[in-house]
Amino acid sequence: MPAAAPLRYLQALPRGTDRPRGTLVLVHAFPLNARMWEPQLAIADHGWRVIAPQLRGVDGDQKPPARSVDEYAGDVIDLMDELGIHEAVVGGLSMGGYVTLAMFRHAPRYFLGMVLADTRPQADTPDGVEGRKRMLQLVREKGASAVANEMLPKVLSDAARRNHPDLTERVRGLVLSNSTESIAGAITAMMTRPDSTSLLSTIHCPTLILVGAEDGVTPPALSQDMQRAIGGATLVILPDAGHLSSMEQPAAFNEALAQFLGHRV
Questions:
Q1: Pair 143, 183: CB distance under 8 Å
Q2: What is the pTM of this model?
Q3: 205-215 tens-digit pLDDT
Q4: Looking at the predicted structure, is the pLDDT value of residue 3 above 60?
Q5: Which of 28, 39, 81, 140 is deepest in the core (most CB within 10 A)?
Q6: What is the structure's pLDDT at 158?
């Protein structure tokens, strides 16, 4: 995995010598890493350069973990600058969506388009903050394996866990690749993130909203609310997918993404 200060990243380039049609930057979910986006690297076959940043402190990275979504956002912007990317379609899933919205808040000029997958603009509720605090205690006392056991039933649909044990183990492996410190940092970042609801009406770039029909963490109703708030946004609800829709239904996710990149951007 190549690195450009301060982040490592996955990259896929179009085949042949043609210049890419543009760049797609995809920010990963909690508590995973950039490798969750490996199925989406195939978007390069549609002529796009695909970059999947590995957020700070994740998957063995020795840098201190970020403690806010703004820090994560700044790191991704710095990576884009380092790679000479002046504009891109930027997107993320779940926590990656929080980072995407933070990037837009600070640097909207980088956005050729936006992808918001299985995410929400709202800050955590008081009950949500208490849940994060319990998760912080869990990871500090019992480590990443306890977090994996807690998260898997939430982020994967019942059908996926029942019928695709290989996917369940892949997601578990992505969680276990992260240190206690990086997981705790991400929890703190999510717990303290600002509310981005008022930001939605200022998004004027082409926007794709994706959500799994069986997402219990960020249900489709939240994505429908985002579509109404963002002028001209496209909403795709993916059947038979839970919170990690890009991993449960990669073909359908990629088809929606390719259609958006080909016809809206």
A1: no
A2: 0.95
A3: 999 999 999 99
A4: no
A5: 28
A6: 93
Ordered domains of the chain (ranges, CATH): 3-263 (3.40.50.1820)
Specify whether the CB–CB gap between 233 and 209 falls below 8 A. Answer: yes
Of 158, 201, 197, 188, nearest in space to 57 by CA:
188
pLDDT at 5: 58
Instruction: Report CA-CA distances (Å) from 144 to 65, 139, 149, 162, 178.
Output: 15, 6, 9, 22, 7
Confidence of residue 2 (pLDDT cuts 50, 70, 90): low
**Contact between 251 and 170 (Cβ < 8 Å):** no
Convert the pLDDT of each residue in 116-154 to its tens digit: 999 999 999 999 999 999 999 999 999 999 999 999 999
